[in-house]
């Protein structure tokens, strides 16, 4: 919208009617809204930049610039069927409004919680779409940095919609990232190593998303994460050592092919980890006629 900023709040509320809350983050609330003109439903992420909850001006400026970056990255990805569509954006002195397509089926996280664990067939369906998105993002040198089942939404046909580009950034080929960002259980070892050695000039790159895909795939198939400890320190130590196993009885009924793929994603050396393109070519995704006949 090109209106002056003060008028954009009016325009937002004139166009959309707010309904129930769908989710809440640190500085954002996501609500269902209805477009008054046609009854169409959307989800709006409302970001509070009034400074009433956070009096530090520097934080507000960071929140604003991060959100503007999130919007520009979402626009770069417009049209991919498995990336959340940004329908509209409003900017006012106190709030930013990001209007998204509505994912009525909610988070993959909630679906998994309800199902406990997923079949190899279901996992193949979700993971193929996820690797396709990651391959697309990495082709544009976009690194997501917060892939996890809470940020993977589903549409009415159970197709995934990757969302929450709040930590995403474009990484030029000659550069490396250094910030400690993401969600603890999904952090790649090189992110932790970077954070611990301040004078380390290695940094990290796109491969962190592949590690997160490995954590997600492991979790989908057995219903619990590969790295978990009540004391977070021990969990982080296990991540850095790549210390996980398929020994739990939960893995007894899972075949070797998906385990082989996971073991090529959860590789501590990012240079030896599969790329998204290589993952898509793994035998786990090479469906042949016998599988469909057997209904696997
Ligand atoms: P945050 O950066 O605060 O984590 P998200 O973009 O991940 O914000 O949104 C928070 C939550 O709101 C999501 O985990 C999801 O439950 C819900 N949500 C976000 N976008 C949508 C959407 N388009 N449709 C349905 N629910 C959504
Ligand atoms: Mg989120």
Could you explain how this protein is built, in words?
With 296 residues, the chain is α+β, with helices and mostly antiparallel strands. The chain contains ten helices and nine strands. A five-stranded antiparallel β-sheet has the order 1-2-3-5-4, sandwiched between helices. Strand 4 (86-91) and strand 5 (95-101) form a beta hairpin. The chain is globular and about 60 Å long. The termini are far apart. 32% of the residues are buried. Bound molecules: adenosine-5'-diphosphate (ADP) and magnesium ion (MG). Residues 25, 150-151, 164 line the site of magnesium ion (MG). Its EC number is 2.7.11.19. One of its GO terms (cellular component) is phosphorylase kinase complex. Belongs to the protein kinase superfamily.
Number of strands: 9
Average pLDDT metric: 93
Question: In percent, how helical is the residue content?
Answer: 25-40%
Cα-based radius of gyration, to the nearest Å = 20 Å
Low-confidence stretches: none
What does the overall shape look like?
Answer: globular
- N- and C-termini, Cα separation: 48 Å
The kinds of small molecule bound in this structure are: adenosine-5'-diphosphate, magnesium ion
Largest sheet: 5 strands, antiparallel
Strand content: 15-25%
Give the H and E element order: HEEEHEEHHEEEEHHHHHH
Backbone structural class = alpha+beta
Q: What is the topology, as strand order, of the major beta sheet?
A: 1-2-3-5-4
Query: How would you describe the oligomerization state of the chains in this entry?
Result: single chain
The tally of helices reads 10
GO molecular function: ATP binding; calmodulin binding; phosphorylase kinase activity
Catalytic activity: 2 ATP + phosphorylase b = 2 ADP + phosphorylase a
Subunit structure: Hexadecamer of 4 heterotetramers, each composed of alpha, beta, gamma, and delta subunits. Alpha (PHKA1 or PHKA2) and beta (PHKB) are regulatory subunits, gamma (PHKG1 or PHKG2) is the catalytic subunit, and delta is calmodulin.
Binding site for ATP: 45
């Amino acid at each position: 919208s090109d209106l002056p900023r003060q008028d954009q709040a009016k325009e937002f509320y004139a166009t959309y009617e707010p309904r129930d809350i769908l989710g809440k983050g640190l500085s954002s609330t996501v609500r269902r809204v209805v477009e008054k003109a046609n009854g169409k439903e959307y989800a709006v992420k409302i970001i509070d930049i009034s400074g009433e909850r956070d009096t530090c001006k520097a934080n507000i400026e960071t929140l604003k610039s991060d959100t503007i970056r999130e919007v520009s990255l979402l626009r770069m990805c417009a049209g991919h069927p498995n990336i959340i569509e940004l329908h509209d954006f409003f900017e006012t002195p106190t709030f930013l409004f990001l209007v998204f397509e509505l994912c009525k089926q909610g988070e993959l996280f909630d679906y998994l919680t309800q199902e406990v664990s997923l079949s190899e067939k279901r996992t193949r369906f979700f993971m193929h779409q996820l690797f396709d998105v990651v391959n697309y993002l990495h082709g544009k040198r976009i690194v997501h940095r917060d892939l996890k089942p809470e940020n993977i939404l589903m549409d009415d046909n159970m197709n995934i919609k990757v969302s929450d580009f709040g930590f995403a950034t474009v990484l030029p080929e000659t550069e490396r990232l250094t910030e400690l960002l993401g969600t603890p259980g999904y952090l790649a070892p090189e992110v932790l190593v970077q954070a611990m050695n301040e004078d380390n000039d290695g940094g990290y790159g796109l491969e962190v998303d592949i590690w997160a895909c490995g954590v997600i795939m492991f979790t989908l198939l057995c219903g619990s994460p590969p790295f978990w400890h009540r004391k977070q320190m021990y969990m982080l130590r296990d991540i850095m050592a790549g210390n996980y196993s398929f020994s739990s009885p939960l893995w007894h009924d899972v075949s070797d092919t998906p385990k082989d793929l996971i073991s090529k994603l959860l590789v501590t050396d990012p240079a030896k980890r599969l790329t998204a393109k290589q993952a898509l070519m793994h035998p786990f995704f090479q469906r042949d006629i016998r599988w469909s006949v057997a209904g696997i």
